[in-house]
Design goal:
This protein is α/β, with parallel strands linked by helices. Helix content is 25%, strand content 22%.
Length: 357
Amino acid sequence: MPRPTVARIDLEAIRFNYRLAQQKAGNARAMAVVKADGYGHGIQAVAGALDGLAGKYAVACLEEAEAIRQAGLPQPVVLLQGVHEARDLARCAAMDFEPVLHCRQQLGWLSEASVPSFWLKVNTGMNRLGFRPRELPEVVAGLESMGGRARLQGFVTHFACADDLASDFTGQQTRSFEAAVAPWPDLMRSVGNSAAHFRPNQPLYEWSRPGIMLYGASPMIGKTGLDLGLKPAMTLEAPLITTRTVRAGEAIGYGCTFTADRDTRMGMVAIGYGDGYPRHAGTGTPAAINGQRIRLLGRVSMDMLAVDLGNAPQAREGDRVELWGPTVSVDEVAECAGTIGYELLTGVSARVPRVHE
Protein backbone atom coordinates (compact mmCIF):
# COMPACT_ATOMS: atom_id res chain seq x y z
CA MET A 1 0.00 0.00 0.00
CA PRO A 2 1.16 3.61 -0.46
CA ARG A 3 2.95 5.35 2.37
CA PRO A 4 0.06 6.86 4.37
CA THR A 5 1.59 10.30 4.91
CA VAL A 6 -1.00 12.84 3.70
CA ALA A 7 -2.09 16.45 3.84
CA ARG A 8 -5.83 16.53 4.47
CA ILE A 9 -7.44 19.70 3.11
CA ASP A 10 -10.67 20.93 4.71
CA LEU A 11 -12.37 22.88 1.94
CA GLU A 12 -15.15 24.05 4.23
CA ALA A 13 -12.51 25.66 6.47
CA ILE A 14 -11.27 27.61 3.44
CA ARG A 15 -14.80 28.78 2.73
CA PHE A 16 -15.23 29.77 6.40
CA ASN A 17 -11.99 31.76 6.34
CA TYR A 18 -12.98 33.49 3.10
CA ARG A 19 -16.29 34.55 4.63
CA LEU A 20 -14.41 35.94 7.62
CA ALA A 21 -12.10 37.86 5.28
CA GLN A 22 -15.09 39.29 3.44
CA GLN A 23 -16.69 40.28 6.73
CA LYS A 24 -13.53 42.07 7.84
CA ALA A 25 -13.18 43.71 4.42
CA GLY A 26 -16.39 45.65 5.01
CA ASN A 27 -17.45 47.43 1.83
CA ALA A 28 -14.48 46.10 -0.10
CA ARG A 29 -14.76 42.88 -2.07
CA ALA A 30 -12.24 40.15 -1.30
CA MET A 31 -10.33 38.60 -4.19
CA ALA A 32 -9.04 35.18 -3.14
CA VAL A 33 -5.27 34.81 -3.41
CA VAL A 34 -4.58 31.25 -4.56
CA LYS A 35 -1.00 31.53 -5.81
CA ALA A 36 1.71 28.95 -5.04
CA ASP A 37 -0.72 26.10 -5.74
CA GLY A 38 -3.24 27.56 -3.35
CA TYR A 39 -0.52 28.01 -0.70
CA GLY A 40 0.21 24.30 -1.02
CA HIS A 41 -3.44 23.23 -0.74
CA GLY A 42 -4.10 22.63 -4.48
CA ILE A 43 -5.02 25.63 -6.62
CA GLN A 44 -7.84 24.03 -8.56
CA ALA A 45 -9.49 22.51 -5.50
CA VAL A 46 -9.20 25.77 -3.53
CA ALA A 47 -10.48 27.93 -6.37
CA GLY A 48 -13.32 25.48 -6.96
CA ALA A 49 -14.26 25.58 -3.29
CA LEU A 50 -14.54 29.37 -3.50
CA ASP A 51 -16.58 29.40 -6.71
CA GLY A 52 -19.70 31.39 -5.98
CA LEU A 53 -18.02 33.27 -3.13
CA ALA A 54 -14.98 35.01 -4.63
CA GLY A 55 -15.57 37.56 -7.36
CA LYS A 56 -11.93 37.46 -8.46
CA TYR A 57 -8.91 35.25 -7.87
CA ALA A 58 -5.33 36.45 -7.58
CA VAL A 59 -2.21 34.50 -8.56
CA ALA A 60 1.44 35.24 -9.18
CA CYS A 61 1.87 34.11 -12.78
CA LEU A 62 0.20 33.11 -16.01
CA GLU A 63 0.51 29.35 -15.44
CA GLU A 64 -1.44 29.62 -12.20
CA ALA A 65 -4.16 31.68 -13.89
CA GLU A 66 -4.47 29.09 -16.65
CA ALA A 67 -4.87 26.34 -14.05
CA ILE A 68 -7.98 28.15 -12.82
CA ARG A 69 -9.42 28.22 -16.32
CA GLN A 70 -8.59 24.53 -16.77
CA ALA A 71 -10.78 23.91 -13.73
CA GLY A 72 -13.66 25.53 -15.62
CA LEU A 73 -13.87 28.64 -13.44
CA PRO A 74 -14.83 31.89 -15.24
CA GLN A 75 -14.01 34.60 -12.68
CA PRO A 76 -11.44 37.28 -13.57
CA VAL A 77 -7.94 36.41 -12.39
CA VAL A 78 -5.45 39.08 -11.29
CA LEU A 79 -1.77 38.34 -12.05
CA LEU A 80 0.05 40.01 -9.18
CA GLN A 81 3.48 39.83 -10.85
CA GLY A 82 2.21 40.88 -14.24
CA VAL A 83 3.52 39.21 -17.38
CA HIS A 84 7.02 38.35 -18.53
CA GLU A 85 6.69 38.67 -22.33
CA ALA A 86 4.67 40.90 -24.66
CA ARG A 87 2.86 37.92 -26.16
CA ASP A 88 1.48 37.02 -22.73
CA LEU A 89 -0.78 40.08 -22.89
CA ALA A 90 -2.77 38.52 -25.73
CA ARG A 91 -3.28 35.38 -23.63
CA CYS A 92 -4.48 37.57 -20.78
CA ALA A 93 -6.91 39.41 -23.04
CA ALA A 94 -8.32 36.17 -24.41
CA MET A 95 -8.86 34.57 -21.00
CA ASP A 96 -10.00 37.56 -18.91
CA PHE A 97 -6.82 37.79 -16.86
CA GLU A 98 -5.91 41.13 -15.30
CA PRO A 99 -2.12 41.58 -15.04
CA VAL A 100 -0.67 44.07 -12.58
CA LEU A 101 1.84 46.08 -14.62
CA HIS A 102 4.76 47.40 -12.62
CA CYS A 103 7.48 48.70 -14.98
CA ARG A 104 7.96 50.67 -18.18
CA GLN A 105 8.97 47.59 -20.16
CA GLN A 106 5.56 46.08 -19.52
CA LEU A 107 3.85 49.33 -20.46
CA GLY A 108 5.79 49.31 -23.72
CA TRP A 109 4.32 45.92 -24.58
CA LEU A 110 0.81 47.42 -24.56
CA SER A 111 1.44 48.88 -28.02
CA GLU A 112 2.49 45.48 -29.40
CA ALA A 113 -0.38 43.21 -28.45
CA SER A 114 -4.03 42.83 -27.60
CA VAL A 115 -4.54 44.72 -24.39
CA PRO A 116 -6.32 43.09 -21.46
CA SER A 117 -7.82 44.89 -18.51
CA PHE A 118 -4.92 45.64 -16.18
CA TRP A 119 -3.85 47.28 -12.94
CA LEU A 120 -0.88 49.51 -12.12
CA LYS A 121 1.41 48.72 -9.20
CA VAL A 122 2.33 51.68 -6.98
CA ASN A 123 5.53 51.50 -4.94
CA THR A 124 4.64 53.12 -1.63
CA GLY A 125 7.75 52.02 0.24
CA MET A 126 8.19 48.27 -0.02
CA ASN A 127 10.57 48.79 -2.95
CA ARG A 128 10.03 45.51 -4.72
CA LEU A 129 7.84 46.35 -7.73
CA GLY A 130 5.87 49.33 -8.99
CA PHE A 131 5.94 52.96 -10.04
CA ARG A 132 6.78 55.62 -7.51
CA PRO A 133 3.91 57.99 -6.75
CA ARG A 134 5.58 60.88 -8.55
CA GLU A 135 5.71 58.80 -11.76
CA LEU A 136 1.99 58.08 -11.92
CA PRO A 137 0.84 61.27 -13.71
CA GLU A 138 3.21 60.63 -16.61
CA VAL A 139 2.37 56.93 -16.71
CA VAL A 140 -1.39 57.47 -16.74
CA ALA A 141 -1.09 60.26 -19.31
CA GLY A 142 0.74 57.82 -21.57
CA LEU A 143 -2.01 55.29 -21.15
CA GLU A 144 -4.68 57.89 -21.87
CA SER A 145 -2.93 58.70 -25.12
CA MET A 146 -3.72 55.14 -26.22
CA GLY A 147 -7.40 55.95 -26.12
CA GLY A 148 -9.72 52.98 -25.77
CA ARG A 149 -6.86 50.52 -25.94
CA ALA A 150 -5.78 51.25 -22.37
CA ARG A 151 -8.16 49.32 -20.14
CA LEU A 152 -6.84 50.45 -16.77
CA GLN A 153 -8.84 48.93 -13.90
CA GLY A 154 -7.10 50.63 -11.03
CA PHE A 155 -4.11 50.71 -8.70
CA VAL A 156 -2.48 48.19 -6.38
CA THR A 157 0.11 48.51 -3.64
CA HIS A 158 1.50 46.06 -1.09
CA PHE A 159 2.18 46.55 2.61
CA ALA A 160 5.55 45.71 4.13
CA CYS A 161 4.71 45.76 7.85
CA ALA A 162 0.97 45.20 8.15
CA ASP A 163 1.64 42.17 10.35
CA ASP A 164 3.13 44.42 13.05
CA LEU A 165 0.49 46.42 14.91
CA ALA A 166 3.23 48.42 16.64
CA SER A 167 4.52 49.79 13.33
CA ASP A 168 3.10 52.92 11.69
CA PHE A 169 4.66 52.10 8.33
CA THR A 170 1.35 50.75 7.03
CA GLY A 171 -0.24 54.08 7.83
CA GLN A 172 2.53 55.87 5.96
CA GLN A 173 2.06 53.62 2.94
CA THR A 174 -1.71 54.12 3.02
CA ARG A 175 -1.39 57.89 3.06
CA SER A 176 1.15 57.79 0.24
CA PHE A 177 -1.12 55.56 -1.84
CA GLU A 178 -4.20 57.72 -1.28
CA ALA A 179 -2.38 60.87 -2.33
CA ALA A 180 -0.84 59.17 -5.35
CA VAL A 181 -4.10 57.86 -6.83
CA ALA A 182 -6.38 60.74 -5.78
CA PRO A 183 -6.44 62.28 -9.31
CA TRP A 184 -8.30 59.20 -10.61
CA PRO A 185 -11.23 58.68 -8.22
CA ASP A 186 -13.20 56.50 -10.65
CA LEU A 187 -10.55 53.77 -10.74
CA MET A 188 -10.42 50.89 -8.29
CA ARG A 189 -7.88 50.49 -5.50
CA SER A 190 -6.46 47.43 -3.76
CA VAL A 191 -4.05 47.44 -0.82
CA GLY A 192 -5.21 44.85 1.69
CA ASN A 193 -3.16 41.71 2.24
CA SER A 194 -4.34 39.27 4.92
CA ALA A 195 -2.71 41.22 7.73
CA ALA A 196 -4.49 44.43 6.73
CA HIS A 197 -7.83 42.76 7.51
CA PHE A 198 -6.81 42.62 11.18
CA ARG A 199 -5.61 46.23 11.49
CA PRO A 200 -8.17 48.50 13.18
CA ASN A 201 -9.56 51.25 10.93
CA GLN A 202 -7.42 50.21 7.96
CA PRO A 203 -9.00 51.31 4.64
CA LEU A 204 -9.32 48.44 2.17
CA TYR A 205 -10.98 50.43 -0.65
CA GLU A 206 -12.67 48.45 -3.44
CA TRP A 207 -10.79 45.12 -3.39
CA SER A 208 -8.88 43.38 -0.62
CA ARG A 209 -6.51 40.46 -1.22
CA PRO A 210 -6.73 37.81 1.53
CA GLY A 211 -4.10 35.11 1.11
CA ILE A 212 -2.62 33.20 4.05
CA MET A 213 -5.70 33.78 6.20
CA LEU A 214 -7.80 31.73 3.76
CA TYR A 215 -5.78 28.69 4.79
CA GLY A 216 -6.10 29.25 8.53
CA ALA A 217 -2.56 30.43 9.26
CA SER A 218 -1.76 33.75 10.90
CA PRO A 219 -0.60 36.87 9.07
CA MET A 220 0.06 38.67 12.38
CA ILE A 221 3.16 38.76 14.57
CA GLY A 222 2.59 37.00 17.89
CA LYS A 223 -0.75 35.44 16.93
CA THR A 224 -1.74 32.03 15.63
CA GLY A 225 -4.52 31.51 13.15
CA LEU A 226 -6.65 30.08 15.93
CA ASP A 227 -6.08 33.25 17.96
CA LEU A 228 -7.55 35.22 15.06
CA GLY A 229 -10.64 33.06 14.70
CA LEU A 230 -9.40 31.22 11.61
CA LYS A 231 -9.88 27.52 10.92
CA PRO A 232 -6.84 25.47 9.84
CA ALA A 233 -7.38 24.09 6.34
CA MET A 234 -4.48 21.63 6.20
CA THR A 235 -3.87 18.74 8.56
CA LEU A 236 -0.46 17.23 7.87
CA GLU A 237 -0.39 13.72 9.27
CA ALA A 238 1.79 10.62 9.13
CA PRO A 239 1.78 7.19 10.78
CA LEU A 240 3.66 6.16 13.87
CA ILE A 241 5.76 3.31 12.47
CA THR A 242 7.58 2.06 15.56
CA THR A 243 7.92 2.66 19.28
CA ARG A 244 10.74 1.92 21.70
CA THR A 245 12.13 2.95 25.04
CA VAL A 246 15.45 4.77 25.04
CA ARG A 247 17.36 4.49 28.27
CA ALA A 248 18.72 7.37 30.29
CA GLY A 249 21.96 8.50 28.67
CA GLU A 250 21.06 7.24 25.16
CA ALA A 251 20.82 9.63 22.22
CA ILE A 252 18.37 9.78 19.31
CA GLY A 253 19.01 10.51 15.63
CA TYR A 254 21.64 12.28 13.58
CA GLY A 255 24.16 14.32 15.49
CA CYS A 256 22.96 12.92 18.81
CA THR A 257 21.35 16.29 19.48
CA PHE A 258 18.96 14.82 22.07
CA THR A 259 20.09 12.64 24.95
CA ALA A 260 17.50 11.18 27.30
CA ASP A 261 17.85 12.21 30.92
CA ARG A 262 15.56 9.35 31.95
CA ASP A 263 14.03 6.26 30.36
CA THR A 264 11.77 7.66 27.62
CA ARG A 265 9.17 5.96 25.45
CA MET A 266 9.48 7.38 21.96
CA GLY A 267 8.24 6.67 18.46
CA MET A 268 9.26 7.20 14.85
CA VAL A 269 6.93 8.98 12.44
CA ALA A 270 7.03 8.49 8.66
CA ILE A 271 7.62 12.10 7.64
CA GLY A 272 10.70 14.27 7.29
CA TYR A 273 12.24 17.17 5.44
CA GLY A 274 11.89 15.26 2.16
CA ASP A 275 8.16 15.77 2.64
CA GLY A 276 8.56 19.44 3.41
CA TYR A 277 8.55 19.20 7.19
CA PRO A 278 11.12 21.74 8.44
CA ARG A 279 14.50 20.25 9.32
CA HIS A 280 15.13 23.04 11.83
CA ALA A 281 12.14 22.03 13.95
CA GLY A 282 14.03 20.32 16.76
CA THR A 283 13.38 18.98 20.23
CA GLY A 284 10.27 20.47 21.79
CA THR A 285 8.41 21.27 18.57
CA PRO A 286 4.77 20.27 19.17
CA ALA A 287 2.88 17.51 17.40
CA ALA A 288 -0.18 15.50 18.43
CA ILE A 289 -1.39 11.91 18.50
CA ASN A 290 -4.96 10.86 19.23
CA GLY A 291 -5.68 14.48 20.17
CA GLN A 292 -2.89 14.54 22.76
CA ARG A 293 -0.08 17.03 22.31
CA ILE A 294 3.42 15.54 22.23
CA ARG A 295 6.85 16.87 21.25
CA LEU A 296 9.60 16.12 18.75
CA LEU A 297 12.94 14.70 19.89
CA GLY A 298 16.29 15.31 18.19
CA ARG A 299 16.96 16.15 14.57
CA VAL A 300 14.44 15.73 11.74
CA SER A 301 15.64 13.23 9.10
CA MET A 302 14.73 13.19 5.41
CA ASP A 303 11.98 10.60 5.81
CA MET A 304 11.39 10.27 9.57
CA LEU A 305 11.31 12.12 12.83
CA ALA A 306 11.17 11.08 16.48
CA VAL A 307 8.51 11.98 19.03
CA ASP A 308 8.25 11.71 22.80
CA LEU A 309 5.30 9.48 23.75
CA GLY A 310 5.48 10.18 27.46
CA ASN A 311 2.22 12.16 27.30
CA ALA A 312 0.52 9.55 25.09
CA PRO A 313 0.98 6.19 26.82
CA GLN A 314 -1.75 4.55 24.72
CA ALA A 315 -0.10 5.42 21.40
CA ARG A 316 0.68 2.44 19.20
CA GLU A 317 2.20 1.69 15.80
CA GLY A 318 -0.20 2.74 13.05
CA ASP A 319 -1.71 5.65 14.97
CA ARG A 320 -1.86 8.91 13.05
CA VAL A 321 0.42 11.73 14.16
CA GLU A 322 -0.70 15.31 13.47
CA LEU A 323 2.30 17.46 12.55
CA TRP A 324 0.04 20.48 12.25
CA GLY A 325 -3.69 20.95 12.01
CA PRO A 326 -6.55 21.53 14.48
CA THR A 327 -4.59 20.49 17.58
CA VAL A 328 -1.19 21.97 16.72
CA SER A 329 -1.16 25.24 14.77
CA VAL A 330 1.17 25.46 11.80
CA ASP A 331 2.17 28.82 13.27
CA GLU A 332 3.50 27.12 16.40
CA VAL A 333 5.60 24.73 14.32
CA ALA A 334 6.87 27.62 12.22
CA GLU A 335 7.96 29.54 15.30
CA CYS A 336 9.92 26.53 16.57
CA ALA A 337 11.57 26.19 13.15
CA GLY A 338 12.45 29.88 12.89
CA THR A 339 10.19 30.56 9.93
CA ILE A 340 6.55 31.42 9.11
CA GLY A 341 3.46 29.38 8.36
CA TYR A 342 3.50 30.52 4.72
CA GLU A 343 6.76 28.67 4.10
CA LEU A 344 5.60 25.47 5.77
CA LEU A 345 2.29 25.27 3.92
CA THR A 346 3.76 26.02 0.52
CA GLY A 347 6.74 23.75 1.19
CA VAL A 348 4.88 20.45 1.65
CA SER A 349 6.42 18.38 -1.12
CA ALA A 350 4.76 16.64 -4.04
CA ARG A 351 5.27 13.20 -2.54
CA VAL A 352 2.67 14.05 0.11
CA PRO A 353 -0.79 13.47 -1.43
CA ARG A 354 -3.40 16.16 -0.87
CA VAL A 355 -6.73 14.66 0.16
CA HIS A 356 -9.53 17.21 -0.28
CA GLU A 357 -12.46 16.74 2.06
